């Protein structure tokens, strides 16, 4: 299995290099990995304590972020190394002020792992959610460096639970603790004899609570809403926008509509504008007459998590594609959440529906039914929103549990 694993890593690395001239993300990944070794020559590790955090992409970064920031607050002298697998995480957070070193993770080969770990000599390592890289974990284990997996979810279809998954099961043994999100993960790991497991929940709950507490007034959005109720549609894709626009174009009530597309390229923004028959304005082109518009298109990034505070209802995109985006960023404001049918891999979405704080739809008719009910029955919307917030509050605290291991001063 180790031979097949190494073969797979090599094939993937080669595919990235071959695709790099033609594919933007492949190009960024290939270039970023090459630059790591040049950057290492300029880095002086020093004698301070160093904790390594690794996240696949942006979503996993957000799960690790409350840990990094709270650890840094408690131990300002501790250095933090942050690595990413994906360009969609690194390119957005490469200037994140909460880490001392931010790099791509070089390909998981025995040579790379030894060279990388030797350069930083971390005192502890934290891998977020589902990052399992054999050679890095093995190198850390050989050096007796404690490794933790946080906010993890395990499912029966994963290699760990297959007869051929010996290498993956071996990787689980490299972790000091596996901090998991749900009871199912605890039971699955117990079924293969893994006992170093703690049920802590998801650190993202702590992160969205922090974001909500720190949210600032956004003048343009406040002026646009002008005291009226709004539906905030976040991280939408074209299938989401098609059914949303079908509803918005025929809606005759007083609700305002804010649409924050996942992709904000000029072509996509223009496509949304062309489909909208209501009075619509782009955020970056808005003037002083914002209150006169029915629909606001957010054509920039970095504001969505704070904009949910202006909503009475939230729609989260992605559920008609691969999977939904972050539902918790909206739920933390105590508003009901709507999303498409592909949500089953996200425990928080499943639980929000179970608790009555969220609704899944699979068609334009389904969307119309849920929106009509929530808009025409403020009490229903308020009750669902309270249920959403109650659920979020019930899941807080994972960060502090993990910090008891990472913080040397406790």
Describe the structure.
With 410 residues, the protein is α/β, with parallel strands linked by helices. It folds into two domains: 2-202 and 396-406, Rossmann fold, CATH 3.40.50; 216-394, Rossmann fold. Helices cover 47% and strands 15% of the residues. It has helices spanning 2-19, 24-42, 58-74, 87-93, 110-120, 134-142, 166-172, 183-191, 204-214, 219-225, 238-250, 266-275, 304-307, 328-331, 347-354, 364-376, 378-394, 398-406; strands at residues 50-55, 79-84, 101-104, 124-128, 147-152, 177-180, 197-199, 230-236, 256-261, 280-282, 295-297, 313-316, 337-339, 358-360. The strands form two sheets. The protein has a seven-stranded parallel β-sheet, with helices on both faces. The chain has a seven-stranded parallel β-sheet with strand order 10-11-9-8-12-13-14, with helices on both faces. Helix 3 (58-74) packs across helix 9, helix 3 packs across helix 18 (398-406) and helix 5 crosses helix 6 (134-142). The longest helix is centred in the first third of the chain and has 19 residues, at 24-42. The radius of gyration is 23 Å and the shape is globular. The relative contact order is 0.10.
């Amino acid at each position: 299995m180790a031979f097949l694993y190494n073969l797979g890593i090599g094939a993937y690395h080669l595919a990235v290099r071959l695709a790099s001239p033609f594919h933007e993300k492949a190009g960024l990944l290939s270039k970023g990995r090459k630059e790591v070794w040049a950057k290492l020559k300029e880095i002086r590790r020093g004698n301070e304590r160093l904790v390594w955090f690794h996240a696949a992409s942006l979503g996993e970064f957000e799960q690790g972020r409350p840990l990094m920031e709270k650890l840094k607050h408690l131990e300002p002298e501790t250095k933090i190394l942050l690595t990413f697998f994906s360009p969609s995480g690194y390119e957005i957070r490469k200037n994140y002020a909460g880490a001392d070193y931010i790099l791509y993770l070089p390909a998981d080969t025995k040579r790379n792992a030894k060279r990388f770990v030797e350069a930083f000599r971390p005192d502890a390592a934290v891998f977020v959610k589902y990052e399992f890289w054999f050679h890095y974990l093995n190198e850390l284990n050989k050096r007796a460096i404690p490794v933790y997996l946080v906010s993890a979810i395990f499912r029966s279809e994963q290699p760990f639970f297959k007869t051929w998954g010996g290498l993956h099961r071996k990787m689980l043994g490299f972790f000091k603790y596996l901090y998991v999100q749900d009871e199912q993960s605890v039971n699955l790991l117990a079924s293969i004899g893994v006992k170093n497991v703690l049920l802590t929940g998801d650190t993202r709950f702590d992160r969205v609570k922090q974001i909500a507490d720190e949210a600032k007034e956004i003048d343009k959005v406040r002026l646009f809403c002008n005291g009226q109720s709004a539906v905030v549609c976040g991280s939408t894709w074209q299938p989401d926008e098609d059914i949303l626009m079908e509803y918005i174009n025929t809606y005759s009530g007083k609700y305002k509509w804010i649409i924050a597309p996942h992709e904000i390229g000029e072509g996509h923004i223009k496509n949304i504008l062309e489909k909208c028959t209501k009075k619509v304005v782009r955020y970056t082109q808005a003037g002083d007459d914002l209150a006169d518009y029915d629909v606001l298109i957010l054509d920039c990034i970095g504001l969505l998590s704070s904009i949910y505070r202006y909503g009475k209802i939230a729609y989260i995109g992605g559920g008609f594609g691969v999977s939904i985006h972050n539902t918790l960023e909206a739920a933390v404001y105590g508003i009901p959440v709507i999303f498409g049918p592909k949500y089953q891999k996200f425990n928080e979405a499943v639980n929000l529906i179970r608790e009555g704080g969220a609704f899944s739809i699979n068609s334009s008719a389904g969307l119309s039914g849920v929106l009509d009910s929530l808009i025409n029955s403020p009490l229903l919307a308020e009750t669902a929103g309270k249920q959403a917030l109650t659920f979020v509050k019930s899941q807080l605290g994972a960060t502090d549990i993990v910090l008891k291991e990472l913080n040397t001063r406790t």
